[in-house]
Protein backbone atom coordinates (compact mmCIF):
# COMPACT_ATOMS: atom_id res chain seq x y z
CA UNK A 1 0.00 0.00 0.00
CA UNK A 2 1.38 3.39 -1.05
CA UNK A 3 0.95 6.37 1.23
CA UNK A 4 0.66 10.08 0.34
CA UNK A 5 0.20 13.27 2.31
CA UNK A 6 -2.83 14.07 0.19
CA UNK A 7 -4.94 12.06 -2.21
CA UNK A 8 -7.29 14.00 -4.51
CA UNK A 9 -10.12 12.18 -6.26
CA UNK A 10 -10.94 14.00 -9.49
CA UNK A 11 -8.72 16.03 -11.84
CA UNK A 12 -11.29 18.64 -12.72
CA UNK A 13 -11.10 22.36 -11.90
CA UNK A 14 -11.64 21.92 -8.15
CA UNK A 15 -9.42 18.84 -7.78
CA UNK A 16 -6.48 20.34 -9.66
CA UNK A 17 -6.82 23.64 -7.78
CA UNK A 18 -6.78 21.78 -4.46
CA UNK A 19 -3.76 19.71 -5.45
CA UNK A 20 -1.82 22.79 -6.55
CA UNK A 21 -2.39 24.66 -3.29
CA UNK A 22 -1.37 21.63 -1.22
CA UNK A 23 1.70 20.86 -3.32
CA UNK A 24 2.88 24.47 -3.02
CA UNK A 25 3.14 23.92 0.73
CA UNK A 26 5.41 20.92 0.25
CA UNK A 27 2.84 18.14 0.45
CA UNK A 28 3.26 14.91 -1.51
CA UNK A 29 0.08 14.93 -3.62
CA UNK A 30 -1.44 12.41 -6.01
CA UNK A 31 -4.59 12.92 -8.10
CA UNK A 32 -6.70 10.11 -9.55
CA UNK A 33 -9.15 10.59 -12.41
CA UNK A 34 -11.19 8.03 -14.30
CA UNK A 35 -10.88 9.88 -17.62
CA UNK A 36 -8.17 9.67 -20.26
CA UNK A 37 -7.49 13.39 -20.02
CA UNK A 38 -7.28 15.66 -16.96
CA UNK A 39 -9.11 18.96 -16.63
CA UNK A 40 -12.66 17.74 -16.19
CA UNK A 41 -15.30 19.93 -17.81
CA UNK A 42 -12.89 22.79 -18.54
CA UNK A 43 -11.74 21.41 -21.88
CA UNK A 44 -15.32 21.27 -23.12
CA UNK A 45 -15.87 24.91 -22.29
CA UNK A 46 -14.90 27.06 -25.25
CA UNK A 47 -16.84 30.08 -23.96
CA UNK A 48 -15.34 32.90 -21.90
CA UNK A 49 -15.77 32.83 -18.13
CA UNK A 50 -17.60 35.48 -16.10
CA UNK A 51 -16.40 37.18 -12.93
CA UNK A 52 -13.33 39.40 -12.57
CA UNK A 53 -9.61 38.91 -13.15
CA UNK A 54 -9.22 36.87 -9.98
CA UNK A 55 -11.96 34.53 -11.25
CA UNK A 56 -10.23 34.18 -14.65
CA UNK A 57 -12.91 36.24 -16.37
CA UNK A 58 -12.93 36.54 -20.19
CA UNK A 59 -10.63 33.51 -20.44
CA UNK A 60 -12.00 30.46 -22.23
CA UNK A 61 -12.46 27.29 -20.20
CA UNK A 62 -10.00 25.13 -22.12
CA UNK A 63 -7.27 27.76 -21.69
CA UNK A 64 -7.93 27.79 -17.93
CA UNK A 65 -7.59 24.02 -18.02
CA UNK A 66 -4.24 24.25 -19.81
CA UNK A 67 -2.98 26.77 -17.26
CA UNK A 68 -4.08 24.59 -14.32
CA UNK A 69 -2.35 21.52 -15.75
CA UNK A 70 0.86 23.47 -16.25
CA UNK A 71 0.64 24.85 -12.71
CA UNK A 72 0.05 21.36 -11.30
CA UNK A 73 3.02 19.97 -13.20
CA UNK A 74 5.27 22.78 -11.98
CA UNK A 75 4.12 22.16 -8.40
CA UNK A 76 5.05 18.48 -8.63
CA UNK A 77 1.52 17.08 -8.52
CA UNK A 78 1.28 13.48 -9.73
CA UNK A 79 -1.81 12.89 -11.89
CA UNK A 80 -2.89 9.31 -12.63
CA UNK A 81 -5.46 8.94 -15.43
CA UNK A 82 -7.75 6.08 -16.42
CA UNK A 83 -7.85 5.42 -12.68
CA UNK A 84 -11.29 4.84 -11.16
CA UNK A 85 -11.56 5.18 -7.39
CA UNK A 86 -13.97 2.39 -6.45
CA UNK A 87 -13.67 2.52 -2.67
CA UNK A 88 -13.22 5.16 0.04
CA UNK A 89 -13.06 4.08 3.66
CA UNK A 90 -13.13 5.60 7.14
CA UNK A 91 -9.38 5.38 7.69
CA UNK A 92 -8.71 7.40 4.51
CA UNK A 93 -7.81 4.35 2.50
CA UNK A 94 -8.91 4.09 -1.12
CA UNK A 95 -9.01 1.36 -3.72
CA UNK A 96 -8.35 2.32 -7.33
CA UNK A 97 -8.92 0.32 -10.49
CA UNK A 98 -6.13 1.02 -12.97
CA UNK A 99 -6.44 -1.18 -16.05
CA UNK A 100 -7.22 -4.70 -14.83
CA UNK A 101 -5.62 -4.23 -11.43
CA UNK A 102 -6.88 -2.98 -8.08
CA UNK A 103 -4.44 -0.79 -6.13
CA UNK A 104 -4.60 0.35 -2.50
CA UNK A 105 -3.52 3.78 -1.30
CA UNK A 106 -3.70 5.62 1.99
CA UNK A 107 -3.76 9.37 2.45
CA UNK A 108 -3.12 11.45 5.53
CA UNK A 109 -5.88 13.58 4.01
CA UNK A 110 -8.25 13.03 1.12
CA UNK A 111 -10.05 15.63 -0.98
CA UNK A 112 -13.03 14.34 -2.94
CA UNK A 113 -13.64 16.46 -6.05
CA UNK A 114 -15.68 14.05 -8.16
CA UNK A 115 -17.96 16.71 -9.64
CA UNK A 116 -21.47 15.99 -10.86
CA UNK A 117 -23.36 13.87 -13.37
CA UNK A 118 -26.06 14.91 -15.79
CA UNK A 119 -29.69 14.40 -14.91
CA UNK A 120 -32.06 12.77 -17.35
CA UNK A 121 -35.81 12.93 -17.89
CA UNK A 122 -37.99 10.19 -19.24
CA UNK A 123 -40.54 10.47 -22.03
CA UNK A 124 -41.84 8.19 -24.72
CA UNK A 125 -38.83 7.26 -26.88
CA UNK A 126 -36.20 8.68 -24.51
CA UNK A 127 -33.93 5.64 -25.00
CA UNK A 128 -33.68 6.08 -28.77
CA UNK A 129 -30.24 6.77 -30.24
CA UNK A 130 -30.11 10.53 -30.73
CA UNK A 131 -31.31 11.47 -27.24
CA UNK A 132 -28.18 12.74 -25.47
CA UNK A 133 -27.10 14.93 -22.58
CA UNK A 134 -25.76 18.43 -23.14
CA UNK A 135 -22.43 17.39 -21.63
CA UNK A 136 -22.19 14.55 -24.13
CA UNK A 137 -22.84 17.02 -26.94
CA UNK A 138 -20.06 19.26 -25.64
CA UNK A 139 -17.70 16.29 -25.48
CA UNK A 140 -18.46 15.33 -29.06
CA UNK A 141 -18.06 18.88 -30.37
CA UNK A 142 -15.29 20.41 -28.33
CA UNK A 143 -13.11 17.40 -27.56
CA UNK A 144 -13.60 15.23 -30.64
CA UNK A 145 -14.71 17.68 -33.34
CA UNK A 146 -17.89 15.72 -34.14
CA UNK A 147 -21.32 17.20 -34.76
CA UNK A 148 -23.85 15.54 -32.41
CA UNK A 149 -26.48 15.95 -35.12
CA UNK A 150 -27.70 18.23 -37.87
CA UNK A 151 -31.08 19.40 -36.51
CA UNK A 152 -31.31 19.54 -32.73
CA UNK A 153 -33.91 20.41 -30.10
CA UNK A 154 -32.58 21.51 -26.71
CA UNK A 155 -34.50 20.80 -23.51
CA UNK A 156 -33.45 23.09 -20.64
CA UNK A 157 -32.88 26.85 -20.46
CA UNK A 158 -30.33 27.01 -17.67
CA UNK A 159 -26.81 28.19 -18.43
CA UNK A 160 -25.80 24.73 -19.68
CA UNK A 161 -28.69 24.54 -22.14
CA UNK A 162 -28.11 28.09 -23.37
CA UNK A 163 -24.32 27.80 -23.71
CA UNK A 164 -24.46 24.40 -25.43
CA UNK A 165 -27.19 25.61 -27.82
CA UNK A 166 -24.89 28.41 -28.93
CA UNK A 167 -21.94 26.05 -29.25
CA UNK A 168 -24.04 23.67 -31.35
CA UNK A 169 -24.66 26.51 -33.80
CA UNK A 170 -20.96 27.35 -33.77
CA UNK A 171 -20.34 23.73 -34.77
CA UNK A 172 -22.66 24.14 -37.75
CA UNK A 173 -25.74 22.45 -36.27
CA UNK A 174 -29.25 23.86 -36.53
CA UNK A 175 -31.00 24.35 -33.18
CA UNK A 176 -34.68 24.24 -34.09
CA UNK A 177 -36.00 25.22 -30.65
CA UNK A 178 -35.10 25.62 -27.01
CA UNK A 179 -37.73 24.11 -24.69
CA UNK A 180 -38.26 24.33 -20.93
CA UNK A 181 -41.15 23.32 -18.69
CA UNK A 182 -40.44 26.33 -16.45
CA UNK A 183 -42.26 29.58 -17.29
CA UNK A 184 -39.03 31.59 -17.31
CA UNK A 185 -35.51 31.17 -18.64
CA UNK A 186 -33.26 29.79 -15.92
CA UNK A 187 -29.83 30.94 -17.10
CA UNK A 188 -28.15 34.29 -17.71
CA UNK A 189 -30.07 36.63 -19.98
CA UNK A 190 -26.95 37.43 -22.00
CA UNK A 191 -26.59 33.72 -22.86
CA UNK A 192 -30.25 33.57 -23.91
CA UNK A 193 -29.94 36.77 -25.95
CA UNK A 194 -27.06 35.50 -28.11
CA UNK A 195 -29.10 32.35 -28.88
CA UNK A 196 -32.30 34.31 -29.60
CA UNK A 197 -30.67 36.75 -32.03
CA UNK A 198 -29.48 33.79 -34.08
CA UNK A 199 -33.15 32.97 -34.66
CA UNK A 200 -33.72 30.13 -32.20
CA UNK A 201 -37.30 30.19 -30.79
CA UNK A 202 -37.92 29.61 -27.09
CA UNK A 203 -40.84 27.47 -25.94
CA UNK A 204 -41.22 27.97 -22.19
CA UNK A 205 -43.92 26.18 -20.20
CA UNK A 206 -43.45 23.33 -22.69
CA UNK A 207 -42.06 19.83 -22.38
CA UNK A 208 -41.24 16.88 -24.59
CA UNK A 209 -44.11 14.47 -25.12
CA UNK A 210 -42.46 12.00 -27.46
CA UNK A 211 -39.24 11.29 -29.30
CA UNK A 212 -40.22 9.92 -32.70
CA UNK A 213 -38.48 7.25 -34.73
CA UNK A 214 -38.01 3.49 -34.91
CA UNK A 215 -34.28 2.87 -34.54
CA UNK A 216 -33.15 6.48 -34.10
CA UNK A 217 -34.61 9.93 -33.49
CA UNK A 218 -36.36 11.38 -36.53
CA UNK A 219 -38.58 13.93 -34.84
CA UNK A 220 -39.96 15.22 -31.56
CA UNK A 221 -43.32 16.38 -30.26
CA UNK A 222 -43.59 18.98 -27.51
CA UNK A 223 -46.64 20.34 -25.71
CA UNK A 224 -47.52 23.16 -23.37
CA UNK A 225 -47.77 22.41 -19.65
CA UNK A 226 -50.17 23.99 -17.19
CA UNK A 227 -49.44 25.25 -13.67
CA UNK A 228 -49.67 21.65 -12.39
CA UNK A 229 -47.04 20.50 -14.92
CA UNK A 230 -49.64 18.56 -16.91
CA UNK A 231 -49.59 18.72 -20.71
CA UNK A 232 -52.37 20.75 -22.33
CA UNK A 233 -54.30 18.73 -24.94
CA UNK A 234 -54.24 20.27 -28.40
CA UNK A 235 -51.04 22.28 -27.75
CA UNK A 236 -48.68 19.77 -29.39
CA UNK A 237 -45.99 20.97 -31.80
CA UNK A 238 -43.83 18.77 -34.02
CA UNK A 239 -40.23 19.30 -35.11
CA UNK A 240 -38.18 17.26 -37.57
CA UNK A 241 -34.91 16.62 -35.72
CA UNK A 242 -32.23 13.96 -35.59
CA UNK A 243 -31.04 14.81 -32.06
CA UNK A 244 -32.67 15.74 -28.76
CA UNK A 245 -30.27 17.32 -26.30
CA UNK A 246 -31.10 17.33 -22.57
CA UNK A 247 -29.81 20.00 -20.19
CA UNK A 248 -31.99 19.34 -17.17
CA UNK A 249 -29.61 19.83 -14.31
CA UNK A 250 -26.77 18.09 -12.51
CA UNK A 251 -26.49 15.87 -9.43
CA UNK A 252 -23.43 15.71 -7.15
CA UNK A 253 -21.44 12.48 -7.54
CA UNK A 254 -21.24 11.91 -3.79
CA UNK A 255 -21.37 8.10 -3.67
CA UNK A 256 -17.80 7.72 -2.39
CA UNK A 257 -18.50 10.05 0.52
CA UNK A 258 -21.55 8.05 1.51
CA UNK A 259 -19.47 4.87 1.29
CA UNK A 260 -16.91 6.40 3.67
CA UNK A 261 -19.59 7.06 6.26
CA UNK A 262 -19.71 10.84 5.87
CA UNK A 263 -22.85 12.46 7.23
CA UNK A 264 -25.03 13.43 4.25
CA UNK A 265 -28.08 15.56 3.61
CA UNK A 266 -30.59 15.82 0.81
CA UNK A 267 -30.33 19.47 -0.25
CA UNK A 268 -32.29 20.41 -3.41
CA UNK A 269 -30.66 23.85 -3.53
CA UNK A 270 -27.27 22.15 -3.85
CA UNK A 271 -28.46 19.59 -6.38
CA UNK A 272 -29.17 16.53 -4.25
CA UNK A 273 -27.21 14.34 -1.81
CA UNK A 274 -24.26 16.33 -0.45
CA UNK A 275 -21.97 15.92 2.57
CA UNK A 276 -22.38 18.05 5.66
CA UNK A 277 -19.14 20.02 6.07
CA UNK A 278 -17.56 22.47 8.48
CA UNK A 279 -16.26 25.90 7.50
CA UNK A 280 -13.09 24.34 6.10
CA UNK A 281 -14.81 21.92 3.75
CA UNK A 282 -14.08 18.96 6.03
CA UNK A 283 -16.74 16.27 6.28
CA UNK A 284 -17.87 14.51 9.42
CA UNK A 285 -15.06 12.00 8.81
CA UNK A 286 -11.84 13.61 10.00
CA UNK A 287 -9.34 14.15 7.19
CA UNK A 288 -11.83 13.83 4.32
CA UNK A 289 -12.50 17.14 2.58
CA UNK A 290 -14.67 18.07 -0.42
CA UNK A 291 -14.55 20.70 -3.14
CA UNK A 292 -16.54 21.65 -6.22
CA UNK A 293 -19.86 20.28 -7.47
CA UNK A 294 -19.75 17.22 -5.20
CA UNK A 295 -20.57 19.60 -2.34
CA UNK A 296 -23.15 21.65 -4.27
CA UNK A 297 -23.70 22.56 -7.93
CA UNK A 298 -22.11 25.86 -8.95
CA UNK A 299 -20.07 27.32 -11.80
CA UNK A 300 -16.52 26.18 -12.56
CA UNK A 301 -15.17 29.52 -11.28
CA UNK A 302 -16.58 28.73 -7.85
CA UNK A 303 -15.28 25.16 -8.02
CA UNK A 304 -11.71 26.37 -8.54
CA UNK A 305 -11.91 28.66 -5.52
CA UNK A 306 -13.43 25.90 -3.39
CA UNK A 307 -10.62 23.61 -4.51
CA UNK A 308 -7.98 26.08 -3.42
CA UNK A 309 -9.73 26.44 -0.07
CA UNK A 310 -9.81 22.67 0.43
CA UNK A 311 -6.11 22.36 -0.43
CA UNK A 312 -5.22 25.05 2.08
CA UNK A 313 -7.43 23.51 4.79
CA UNK A 314 -5.86 20.09 4.26
CA UNK A 315 -2.36 21.57 4.40
CA UNK A 316 -3.12 23.23 7.72
CA UNK A 317 -4.74 20.09 9.15
CA UNK A 318 -1.53 18.15 8.46
CA UNK A 319 0.81 20.82 9.83
CA UNK A 320 2.14 22.18 6.53
CA UNK A 321 0.66 25.60 7.28
CA UNK A 322 -0.14 27.40 10.51
CA UNK A 323 -3.65 28.52 11.36
CA UNK A 324 -2.86 32.21 10.97
CA UNK A 325 -1.75 31.77 7.34
CA UNK A 326 -4.68 29.44 6.68
CA UNK A 327 -7.20 31.94 8.03
CA UNK A 328 -5.70 34.81 6.01
CA UNK A 329 -5.74 32.82 2.78
CA UNK A 330 -9.22 31.45 3.37
CA UNK A 331 -10.60 34.90 4.15
CA UNK A 332 -9.36 36.25 0.81
CA UNK A 333 -10.72 33.24 -1.07
CA UNK A 334 -14.05 33.44 0.75
CA UNK A 335 -14.36 37.06 -0.35
CA UNK A 336 -13.70 36.06 -3.96
CA UNK A 337 -16.23 33.24 -3.68
CA UNK A 338 -18.89 35.42 -2.15
CA UNK A 339 -18.56 37.94 -4.99
CA UNK A 340 -19.50 35.16 -7.42
CA UNK A 341 -22.54 34.31 -5.32
CA UNK A 342 -24.00 37.81 -5.40
CA UNK A 343 -26.60 39.25 -7.74
CA UNK A 344 -29.92 37.96 -8.97
CA UNK A 345 -28.52 34.45 -9.55
CA UNK A 346 -27.09 34.14 -6.03
CA UNK A 347 -28.21 31.25 -3.82
CA UNK A 348 -30.58 33.42 -1.80
CA UNK A 349 -32.48 34.37 -4.97
CA UNK A 350 -32.78 30.87 -6.41
CA UNK A 351 -36.36 30.29 -7.56
CA UNK A 352 -37.42 33.87 -6.94
CA UNK A 353 -38.93 36.14 -9.58
CA UNK A 354 -37.18 39.48 -9.07
CA UNK A 355 -38.85 42.58 -10.50
CA UNK A 356 -36.05 45.15 -10.14
CA UNK A 357 -32.28 45.25 -10.62
CA UNK A 358 -30.02 46.51 -7.85
CA UNK A 359 -30.11 49.89 -9.63
CA UNK A 360 -33.91 50.02 -9.63
CA UNK A 361 -34.42 49.19 -13.32
CA UNK A 362 -37.30 46.95 -14.30
CA UNK A 363 -36.11 43.43 -15.05
CA UNK A 364 -37.08 42.52 -18.59
CA UNK A 365 -39.96 40.06 -18.61
CA UNK A 366 -39.55 39.63 -22.37
CA UNK A 367 -35.99 38.49 -21.78
CA UNK A 368 -37.13 35.97 -19.18
CA UNK A 369 -39.97 34.66 -21.32
CA UNK A 370 -38.66 34.97 -24.90
CA UNK A 371 -34.89 35.22 -24.57
CA UNK A 372 -34.38 38.80 -25.72
CA UNK A 373 -35.00 42.40 -24.71
CA UNK A 374 -38.07 44.05 -26.16
CA UNK A 375 -37.23 47.23 -28.04
CA UNK A 376 -39.16 49.44 -25.61
CA UNK A 377 -37.23 47.99 -22.66
CA UNK A 378 -33.70 48.62 -23.86
CA UNK A 379 -33.24 52.31 -23.16
CA UNK A 380 -33.87 52.13 -19.41
CA UNK A 381 -30.53 50.46 -18.63
CA UNK A 382 -27.44 52.50 -17.66
CA UNK A 383 -25.26 50.90 -20.33
CA UNK A 384 -27.55 51.99 -23.17
CA UNK A 385 -26.94 55.58 -24.21
CA UNK A 386 -27.22 57.62 -27.37
CA UNK A 387 -24.50 60.17 -28.06
CA UNK A 388 -22.93 61.76 -31.12
CA UNK A 389 -20.36 59.57 -32.79
CA UNK A 390 -19.33 56.06 -31.96
CA UNK A 391 -20.27 54.76 -28.51
CA UNK A 392 -20.79 51.48 -26.65
CA UNK A 393 -24.25 50.04 -26.14
CA UNK A 394 -24.20 47.52 -23.28
CA UNK A 395 -27.26 45.31 -23.25
CA UNK A 396 -26.26 43.70 -19.96
CA UNK A 397 -29.45 43.96 -17.95
CA UNK A 398 -29.12 41.51 -15.05
CA UNK A 399 -26.99 41.71 -11.92
CA UNK A 400 -24.52 38.95 -12.69
CA UNK A 401 -20.92 38.82 -11.39
CA UNK A 402 -18.83 40.13 -14.28
CA UNK A 403 -16.66 43.19 -14.95
CA UNK A 404 -14.10 42.60 -17.77
CA UNK A 405 -15.60 45.45 -19.84
CA UNK A 406 -14.57 47.97 -17.19
CA UNK A 407 -10.95 46.84 -17.31
CA UNK A 408 -10.87 46.46 -21.09
CA UNK A 409 -11.72 50.07 -22.02
CA UNK A 410 -8.48 52.10 -22.41
CA UNK A 411 -10.40 55.38 -22.11
CA UNK A 412 -12.39 54.32 -19.01
CA UNK A 413 -15.70 54.86 -20.80
CA UNK A 414 -17.28 51.99 -18.88
CA UNK A 415 -17.80 51.93 -15.15
CA UNK A 416 -19.10 49.18 -12.89
CA UNK A 417 -17.50 49.97 -9.57
CA UNK A 418 -16.35 47.71 -6.78
CA UNK A 419 -19.47 45.54 -6.82
CA UNK A 420 -19.01 43.24 -9.82
CA UNK A 421 -22.73 42.50 -10.03
CA UNK A 422 -23.56 46.15 -10.81
CA UNK A 423 -24.85 46.90 -14.29
CA UNK A 424 -22.24 48.52 -16.55
CA UNK A 425 -22.75 52.22 -17.20
CA UNK A 426 -21.28 54.67 -19.69
CA UNK A 427 -19.19 57.52 -18.26
CA UNK A 428 -20.52 60.66 -20.01
CA UNK A 429 -17.21 62.46 -19.51
CA UNK A 430 -15.11 59.82 -21.31
CA UNK A 431 -14.65 59.64 -25.08
CA UNK A 432 -15.06 56.30 -26.89
CA UNK A 433 -12.43 55.75 -29.59
CA UNK A 434 -14.13 52.75 -31.15
CA UNK A 435 -11.31 50.30 -30.40
CA UNK A 436 -13.77 47.49 -29.69
CA UNK A 437 -11.90 46.08 -26.68
CA UNK A 438 -15.09 46.11 -24.63
CA UNK A 439 -16.98 44.18 -27.33
CA UNK A 440 -14.30 41.50 -27.42
CA UNK A 441 -13.92 41.32 -23.64
CA UNK A 442 -17.61 40.83 -22.83
CA UNK A 443 -18.10 37.21 -21.79
CA UNK A 444 -21.82 37.48 -22.56
CA UNK A 445 -21.40 39.08 -26.02
CA UNK A 446 -23.72 41.84 -24.85
CA UNK A 447 -21.76 44.94 -25.92
CA UNK A 448 -22.04 46.64 -29.31
CA UNK A 449 -20.44 49.75 -30.79
CA UNK A 450 -22.94 52.00 -32.53
CA UNK A 451 -22.35 55.04 -34.72
CA UNK A 452 -25.64 56.57 -35.93
CA UNK A 453 -23.72 59.05 -38.11
CA UNK A 454 -21.44 56.62 -39.91
CA UNK A 455 -22.49 57.90 -43.32
CA UNK A 456 -25.35 59.99 -44.64
CA UNK A 457 -28.52 58.03 -43.85
CA UNK A 458 -26.49 55.07 -42.56
CA UNK A 459 -25.26 53.83 -39.22
CA UNK A 460 -22.60 51.30 -38.31
CA UNK A 461 -22.97 48.54 -35.73
CA UNK A 462 -19.97 46.56 -34.48
CA UNK A 463 -20.97 43.08 -33.30
CA UNK A 464 -19.17 40.27 -31.49
CA UNK A 465 -18.94 37.38 -33.95
CA UNK A 466 -17.75 33.85 -33.14
CA UNK A 467 -18.78 31.84 -36.19
CA UNK A 468 -16.78 30.43 -39.08
CA UNK A 469 -16.26 31.11 -41.87
CA UNK A 470 -15.93 34.82 -41.30
CA UNK A 471 -17.74 36.91 -43.90
CA UNK A 472 -15.47 39.02 -46.07
CA UNK A 473 -15.40 42.80 -46.18
CA UNK A 474 -18.03 43.94 -48.65
CA UNK A 475 -20.23 40.90 -48.08
CA UNK A 476 -23.94 41.62 -48.12
CA UNK A 477 -26.56 39.90 -46.04
CA UNK A 478 -29.33 40.34 -43.52
CA UNK A 479 -29.28 42.20 -40.24
CA UNK A 480 -31.28 40.39 -37.57
CA UNK A 481 -32.81 41.99 -34.50
CA UNK A 482 -32.66 40.77 -30.90
CA UNK A 483 -35.33 38.17 -31.62
CA UNK A 484 -33.62 36.81 -34.71
CA UNK A 485 -35.97 38.51 -37.18
CA UNK A 486 -34.68 40.07 -40.39
CA UNK A 487 -34.97 43.86 -40.16
CA UNK A 488 -32.92 45.19 -43.06
CA UNK A 489 -30.13 44.54 -45.53
CA UNK A 490 -26.61 44.96 -44.21
CA UNK A 491 -23.10 45.21 -45.62
CA UNK A 492 -19.90 44.20 -43.84
CA UNK A 493 -17.63 47.26 -43.83
CA UNK A 494 -14.90 46.08 -41.46
CA UNK A 495 -13.65 42.92 -39.75
CA UNK A 496 -11.25 43.11 -36.83
CA UNK A 497 -9.36 40.15 -35.47
CA UNK A 498 -6.63 40.26 -32.88
CA UNK A 499 -4.82 37.90 -30.56
CA UNK A 500 -6.04 40.11 -27.72
CA UNK A 501 -9.65 39.51 -28.79
CA UNK A 502 -9.18 35.75 -28.20
CA UNK A 503 -11.29 34.53 -31.14
CA UNK A 504 -14.10 37.04 -30.64
CA UNK A 505 -14.07 38.76 -34.00
CA UNK A 506 -15.51 42.25 -34.43
CA UNK A 507 -17.85 42.52 -37.38
CA UNK A 508 -18.90 46.04 -38.37
CA UNK A 509 -21.98 46.25 -40.55
CA UNK A 510 -23.58 49.22 -42.32
CA UNK A 511 -27.33 49.51 -41.86
CA UNK A 512 -29.94 52.26 -42.37
CA UNK A 513 -29.62 54.88 -39.62
CA UNK A 514 -32.98 53.98 -38.07
CA UNK A 515 -31.79 50.38 -37.63
CA UNK A 516 -28.79 51.24 -35.41
CA UNK A 517 -30.57 50.22 -32.21
CA UNK A 518 -32.23 47.18 -33.76
CA UNK A 519 -29.57 45.34 -35.79
CA UNK A 520 -27.77 42.86 -33.51
CA UNK A 521 -26.64 39.99 -35.73
CA UNK A 522 -25.47 39.46 -39.29
CA UNK A 523 -26.35 36.57 -41.56
CA UNK A 524 -24.71 36.34 -44.96
CA UNK A 525 -26.97 36.00 -48.01
From TrEMBL:
One of its GO terms (molecular function) is glycine dehydrogenase (cyanide-forming) activity. Its EC number is 1.4.99.5. Gene3D superfamilies: 3.30.70.20, FAD/NAD(P)-binding domain. Keywords: Oxidoreductase. It is an enzyme of class 1 (oxidoreductase). Residues 386-419, 422-452 form the 4Fe-4S ferredoxin-type domain. It holds the Pfam family Pyr_redox_2. This is Hydrogen cyanide synthase subunit HcnB. It comes from Anaerostipes caccae.
